[in-house]
Model the fold of this input.
Amino acid sequence: MNTSQHELLTPVSIWTRLLQAKIVDGDMPALDHAQTATQPWYIRVMLGFSGWLGALFLMGFVGILFSLARDNGIVTICIGGGLCSLAYLLFRIPGNNDFLLQFALAVSLAGQGFFVFGLFQEFRSDGAGVYLAILLFEVLLTVTVSNWIHRFLTTLGAVFAAYFFFQQSAIFGLMHGLVALAACGLWWSPILLRRPELLRPIAYALAFALLCTEGGRFVSRLAFDPNHGWWLLHGWRVGTSLANLALLTATVIVLQRQQFTLNSLPAILSLVAAIILCGFSYVAPGLSSALLLILIAYSFSDRVLLGVGLIALLSFVSHYYYQLQVTLLYKSIVLLGLAGLLLTSRFLLKRLFPIADSTTSATDNLEQESEHV
Done:
């Protein structure tokens, strides 16, 4: 019995069944034995843990050296650069070794920490210049080091460095709009399909950083006084306008991918609804950013982004509801108008496109018949 089950799970038998079901055609692709002969998950977890443990011992040794020269920022920067260079060489070693990958990731994160600490230690008075140097350093690591998790983390580091660079330059509320435009441009760029190993982790990092920068601007007015001028009071409107531009651009791209002309009725209704939602985002901050993530998630069938976008939408609406600078009646009217817009859009979609309902009902009938059979 065990032998027959094992034979049913062989790649040849699976390909034969796919051929019989007319799902595939042609000869079976050649097997990559380096990928098929993978280790069990618990062994990979132990190897990854041992990689971090070895990196901790290395960082402890480097920390002893750092304690001897803790008053010299240049030495700290050189230690950080040396650790990042070591991590780069470790990532370049061929083979999918979990111990080596996790060890290199831990070494790189430690090197970035030493580099950042050394910059603040050496240049205490120039905050904007330090963040600009961190931004360039993180961009360099993102481009040169070929690892998914590492590129995701270094992209986040670059975005946060740019965020604090604008904050130190007294340009508040702008970063979330720039991140929204970058995420919109990258996710629908054809280059993403040509170089996914480089751009896909960057795209995910931009999507996550969009929510962080959107939420981070809520505390800008608490951390800085009104003497910073125009950007503190009105910069968030500029950033929201850029995020709205990204949402409208994404809507147009989705309509074109669905082969709708811009003068057709579905396109006009979609754009009008998007413009109204953009207007709501000036009253309820964060709405356009969350809707942009949801639109990206639906377009690329990405459940992770969809879940993050829905949670962000609920979070931003809840944050707006519990704000104290406007009355509860005003907030209730805004939320009631938003709910009415969404329900009206759903009603119009069901009336204008009944084919989707009939297709869904036909699919449900086929599933019920197959269950009875």
The two ends are 27 Å apart (CA to CA). The CA atoms of residues 183 and 189 lie 10 Å apart. The chain is about 80% helix and 0% strand. The first helix runs from residue 2 to 8.
